[in-house]
Design goal:
Elements lengths: L7 H17 L6 E2 L15 H15 L2 H15 L4 E2 L1 H10 L21 H11 L2
Parallel strand pairs: 1-2
Helix pairs in contact: 1-3
């Protein structure tokens, strides 16, 4: 699960370290952003612990925390000239057009269904073809 904003600087530093390590070995890398997390607690979750976890994820999704992490990741990638396969942007467009992206999560919290995972394939291929 995404930590709070207090960990954002550590996240950025870690990404820089990963990208620099890959680049230092002469390899190319690509940033693949993640999917949205749930934006509400699904009625399909009946276990109180799962509902509690989903509520925490929904809060971070809805209060902009995950947006800030994805913006930071894109910024670090741009700074280090790493191409971005931006699945998160696709998920956000779907949500903005009325798609229930929480229903696209196999655990109704944070893991995409097999069908929704095709979004990652699409954005990776699109990025490779640029």
């Amino acid at each position: 699960m995404v930590e709070g904003l207090e960990a954002l600087a550590r996240y950025e530093s870690s990404l820089r370290g990963i990208f620099a390590g890959v680049q230092a070995h002469g390899a190319e890398c690509m940033l693949l952003t993640e999917q949205r997390m749930c934006s509400y607690v699904s009625c399909h979750l009946t276990d109180p612990r799962l509902r509690e976890g989903a509520a925490k994820c929904a809060q971070k999704q809805n209060d902009g925390t995950l947006d800030r992490y994805m913006d930071a990741a894109r910024s670090v990638a741009a700074e280090m000239r790493v191409p971005v396969a931006d699945a998160y942007a696709v998920w956000n467009r779907l949500e903005a057009h009325g798609v229930d992206t929480t229903a696209m999560l196999s655990n109704y919290t944070s893991h995409p269904t097999p069908e929704a995972s095709e979004i990652f394939v699409d954005v990776i291929l699109e990025t490779l073809m640029r």
